[in-house]
Amino acid sequence: xxxLYLHGLESKLNEAKRVRLQKYGKVxxxxxxxxxxxxxxxxxxxxxADTKFDAVVGSSMGxxxxxxxSDKLDVPALLFNPALKxxxxxxxxxxxNRNSSAFKQLVIGQRDPVVKPADTLNFLGEHLNGQTDLHLxxxxxxxxxxxxxxxxxxxxxxxxRI
Length: 162
Hints:
alpha/beta; Rossmann fold
């Protein structure tokens, strides 16, 4: 299984999370300069044009990119605090594929001061398409950073479903 991992704005995939992801397959984790690549989604798709992915995992800005890449590639996505409604740096937003049926598991930290949970929920409500198998996990204990135990639990749940 090939897994595309997309990090957040000022982040990278740390070794502990990489080890957890590698239990499920081969991990591809590009370093994305969101500040200087205003079309990160197309950049990632171009970089891996010859790679078949089976799942996308992303956090924050990577969750934003993963949301759309999941639709473009029609693969399941696990997204932590995805910056869907607003972002602190400009990114081109592609058209939403209204016919997408890719499974998406969104994990939202209810105490997140960076990506406001209400903004994410409003975005999802505004863009429901009746096709996507969407699972929301609202985590009252979680802020913006995803603790390792939460990451591991959500990975386990996600990969059981797909």
